[in-house]
Amino acid sequence: MTSPSTSSSPASPPMPRPMFDAEHELYRSNVARFLRERILPSHAEWEREGLVPRDKWREAGAAGLLCPGIPDAYGGGGGDFLHSTIVVEEIARALASGVTGFTTHSENVAPYLLEFGTEAHKQAFLPGMASGDIVASIAMTEPDAGSDLKAIRSSAVRVDGGWRLNGQKTFITNGWHADRVLVFAKTTPQAGARGISLLWVDTQSAGFRRGRLLDKIGQLAQDTAELFFDDVFVPEDMLIGQPDAAFGYAMSGLIRERLLIAMRCAVALEVALDWTIDHVKQRRAFGKALIENQHIRFKLAEIKTLACATRAFVDSCLTQYLAGALTIDGAAMAKFWAGEATRAIDDLMQFFGGYGYMREYPIARAYVDVRPNRIYGGSAEIMREVIARGL
Ligand SMILES: Cc1cc2nc3c(=O)[nH]c(=O)nc-3n(C[C@H](O)[C@H](O)[C@H](O)COP(=O)(O)OP(=O)(O)OC[C@H]3O[C@@H](n4cnc5c(N)ncnc54)[C@H](O)[C@@H]3O)c2cc1C
Fold first, then answer.
1. What domains, with CATH codes, occur in the chain?
2. The pTM is what?
3. pLDDT digits over 310-323, tens only?
4. Rounded to whole angstroms, how far apart are CA atoms 314 and 347?
5. Shortest-distance Cα residue to atom 29 of ligand 1
6. Are 198 and 131 in contact (CB under 8 A)?
7. Which of 90, 142, 226, 257 is the catalytic position?
8. Could you give the dihedral angle defined by the CA atoms of residues 112, 146, 167 and 134, in that order, rounded to the nearest 10 degrees?
9. How do residues 28-61 score in pLDDT, each as one tens digit?
């Protein structure tokens, strides 16, 4: 029987990836080592507790895993988008789902400050985000509004010197540890999508409160929380970008976010396939290795083809993104395709028999950990909608 490990065979990834140079690969091996030595040994314990200890953020910052693509002038790694990709991929490869929030912080929050913040915002917050002294969340979703961002109810009204924020957010990644939350709130409610602003909220503010640390079926060590804002005062200079412009900002960030989710899904499928191939070569039933059964061999052949097609498509989207040419529907297709491809992990799990249902086995954790990739960052249905609009 295969021992429960997350190591993958050298066959993965299955294709040459010329966009990554030697320096990227060195960075990749440093990221992988950090995860192997500093995250994985206690990951199961953190899964029981529902979160990763706060000090791991500072360790990750010191090891260069946070904000790798933020310019070094602001304390970041000074790398390119491929460095960001590497952190996403290696977390997926290691099945270190408890630190998925590192990339939410680095790739979904920091870019808003970099692109739409003032010089003062960048100087004040990006170095702390890169070092792990500041943990950040992004809060769009509310109990009654997820896919439909323009239906959010959180609102901020102008008061002397700033804004008064009221509302509730849910499913917020890093919400438990967050020192700062990038909150989407209505500032001109009658204007619908054109009336939403971005407020950079200090979680030490009076009126801010965390609700439950949410009990998920997977990604158990990743903190995901409810947040409440009751008359929270947000100073004028903590508005990010222009008032009422947040919907447009969110749309531009989604190309990057969706591509990164697609990259994560492509790796998740590859490693799950590798573990399964190892397992069916070793596990015996009826006097032969499982792989000697044609049904199993054929199914794995199909999934290998799917994994390779996914890798080729997602990497071509990555190449387009690097050239500034990936469109909103292109990114939606990447996320949609790669997310749907991870359904094959269910078939792979089947070949582990009862072991596949035991959390001790990586395939069991991969099955639940990969699932929200078809929900967040825009659900599979919303991806179809975005793709259909471009027809
Ligand atoms: C683990 C996890 C982490 C998350 N982290 C964050 C975070 O950090 N910040 C944050 O803001 N949010 C976060 N979310 C929330 C996530 O982005 C939302 O759950 C997602 O956008 C869907 O919104 P909803 O849950 O309200 O579902 P709904 O919008 O209510 O949708 C329910 C179902 O209806 C479908 N649907 C909706 N509209 C249409 C339509 N027009 N046509 C066809 N089908 C439709 C959806 O696809 C879905 O299947 C997280 C979620 C999870 C599970």
1. 22-134 (1.10.540.10), 137-244 (2.40.110.10), 248-389 (1.20.140.10)
2. 0.96
3. 999 999 999 999 99
4. 22
5. 147
6. no
7. 257
8. -40
9. 999 999 999 999 999 999 999 999 999 999 999 9
